[in-house]
């Protein structure tokens, strides 16, 4: 069961995850199921303690917002246990049932929070109802990023897998027109945050959602992690002592714990250079998003400063 899930991992995961998943798969192949659950903590004893619980908190979006960074930062908290791969339960695998989902979760002790992240949940119409059916108490975290940059990041990822892709400019406008934005293109649609949020607010009160700024997660990771820990009811364990700015990568990375050789920056697929896109095209896209951004600021009570 676990192997099946891990084969459906975040297809755009970074090398850190791939290394992690490789270890887990190897250990499962060796019949070390319980031990495998703990490779992320470098614990070499069998772990049959604790129970598998449904996640009390889920990072539901957004794709290319900085969700992997947030999850990996959270995982250094001793009271957080999370699935490394993206389970995609509430969008792709819902018919497998809740027990299948719970089985994917790591074991937790009392007081520990179970988490997962699947960024596509935010834009999945059925996801709010389904999460609500699991537990109306679920805390929902959304990492949001300037939708223009997010669209370019999304495009960059698709381009890396399919070098023959048409240009961004060709995809962003409707065929017949140079000015009309093609909202059927997922790279555009995902960034209409206000629309997607409306679906979630049909089931969850705003207080159950936390909006993390993808920009501030890069410029002030400790500050943003403070908000996240407060929201989750966790002690503020993750602080600026845990981060350093890696000049080569151009992003904050986690400081290495003493004696560990584990890489603490995210992999190559996170923080990729984006292709050049003409400023007029970006401006047009920015104009398109402006009213939706303003609506989103009103709905959340937060100004993300994207204009
Ligand atoms: N610390 C750190 N290190 C590396 N990258 C970071 C970090 N914090 C945020 N980011 C930004 O995360 C972007 C990828 O977002 P996601 O992890 O949500 O992508 S995915 O949806 O899971 O594919 C990724 O987007 P790109 O820059 O376009 O590659 C990064 O800008």
From TrEMBL:
<dbReference type="Pfam" id="PF00685">
    <property type="entry name" value="Sulfotransfer_1"/>
</dbReference>
<dbReference type="InterPro" id="IPR000863">
    <property type="entry name" value="Sulfotransferase_dom"/>
</dbReference>
<dbReference type="InterPro" id="IPR037359">
    <property type="entry name" value="NST/OST"/>
</dbReference>
<keyword id="KW-0333">Golgi apparatus</keyword>
<keyword id="KW-0325">Glycoprotein</keyword>
<feature type="domain" description="Sulfotransferase">
    <location>
        <begin position="55"/>
        <end position="290"/>
    </location>
</feature>
<feature type="binding site">
    <location>
        <position position="145"/>
    </location>
    <ligand>
        <name>3'-phosphoadenylyl sulfate</name>
    </ligand>
</feature>
<keyword id="KW-0735">Signal-anchor</keyword>
<dbReference type="GO" id="GO:0000139">
    <property type="term" value="C:Golgi membrane"/>
</dbReference>
<keyword id="KW-0812">Transmembrane</keyword>
<feature type="active site" description="For sulfotransferase activity">
    <location>
        <position position="64"/>
    </location>
</feature>
<keyword id="KW-0808">Transferase</keyword>
<feature type="binding site">
    <location>
        <begin position="64"/>
        <end position="68"/>
    </location>
    <ligand>
        <name>3'-phosphoadenylyl sulfate</name>
    </ligand>
</feature>
<dbReference type="GO" id="GO:0008467">
    <property type="term" value="F:[heparan sulfate]-glucosamine 3-sulfotransferase activity"/>
</dbReference>
<dbReference type="InterPro" id="IPR027417">
    <property type="entry name" value="P-loop_NTPase"/>
</dbReference>
<comment type="similarity">
    <text>Belongs to the sulfotransferase 1 family.</text>
</comment>
<feature type="disulfide bond">
    <location>
        <begin position="253"/>
        <end position="265"/>
    </location>
</feature>
<protein>
    <recommendedName>
        <fullName>Sulfotransferase</fullName>
        <ecNumber>2.8.2.-</ecNumber>
    </recommendedName>
</protein>
<feature type="binding site">
    <location>
        <begin position="270"/>
        <end position="274"/>
    </location>
    <ligand>
        <name>3'-phosphoadenylyl sulfate</name>
    </ligand>
</feature>
<keyword id="KW-1133">Transmembrane helix</keyword>
<feature type="binding site">
    <location>
        <position position="153"/>
    </location>
    <ligand>
        <name>3'-phosphoadenylyl sulfate</name>
    </ligand>
</feature>
<keyword id="KW-1015">Disulfide bond</keyword>
<keyword id="KW-0472">Membrane</keyword>
